[in-house]
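Hi, here's the filled form for the chain we discussed.

Project: internal
Contact: R.S.
Residues: 339
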Amino acid sequence: MTAVSIKRLRSSVRGRPATNTNSFVAASAAVVGTLAAVAVANRYLAKKAERDNPPSGRFLKINGVRLHYVERGAGDPVVLLHGNGSMIQDFESSGLIDLLAKDKRVIVFDRPGFGHSERPRNVVWTPSAQAELIQLALVQLGISDAIVLGHSWGASVAVALALKYPDRVRGLVLASGYYYPTVRPDVVALSIPSVPVVGDILSYTLSPLLSRVIWPLMLKKIFGPRSVPEKFNAFPKEMALRPSQIRASAAESALMIPDAFMLRHQYADLKMPVVIIAGEQDKLIDIDTQSARLHADIIQSSFHRIAGNGHMIQQTATNQVMSAITEVAGRSSELAAAE
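And the returned structure, exactly as it came back:
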């Protein structure tokens, strides 16, 4: 091999790492730039969603948390707590608020991190922590006792509220809830956006995009076997796809199994009237291992299986949910009269 050839070979070898490094830096810069652009776009869409869907109710300031709520009607108070990823407009679009407001005082909260309510990150928002916040809100609103309905994750908050403050809860309606720990790989996947740093990056970049893609599939699962009712079109999808709400939803997914584990032996301590209601064909939660088991653990409870319905019974079986509230109200009145 000639001296010139050796020199060329050495020069080529020395140049390869620099070329690879430059390629890596360029690719990294392109990825970061793309993610930054996506984050800016998601931020714009989130702000637009909030402008297009301004608060419909009022706010309470509780322990530094700005809590949004809607109040309507007059009479005995009924509190509604929505599920994970949802907000006040779920109950609004279902028609349940209007039905109750005919002869009840209805209070509906955007739980922390959803709708227009804040979710400070210095608090782990377990059902117990949220129950404390709701209890303080009820004190400010002058409500000494109420019937409380919780749907899905909101049912866990309703249970925690009744366990911590039994004198403030006249009766419970627990709809499509998750009460006992089970193996749920899907929950692990849904929890990823709540992981510190990595989750923040995902929440503000890829997660909103992926959520838009899977939105129709998600609705098919939670509403199945029923089709999505036309009235649900009033639900503000873009509010649910904001990075902040995606992160809040992921955090609640991460808490779902541990919180069920913590509460699983306490249900028998509930002494107020309890009505459990669930769709027989719920594709999200197995009602036999959840609602039916809860019914067995709470002696004074009643359990209504809604045939031909899935997880979103407040939307697809609104009248049956209304009947469950009426049943609890009647039983609590009878109990009060007996005392």
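Let me know if anything looks off before we file it.
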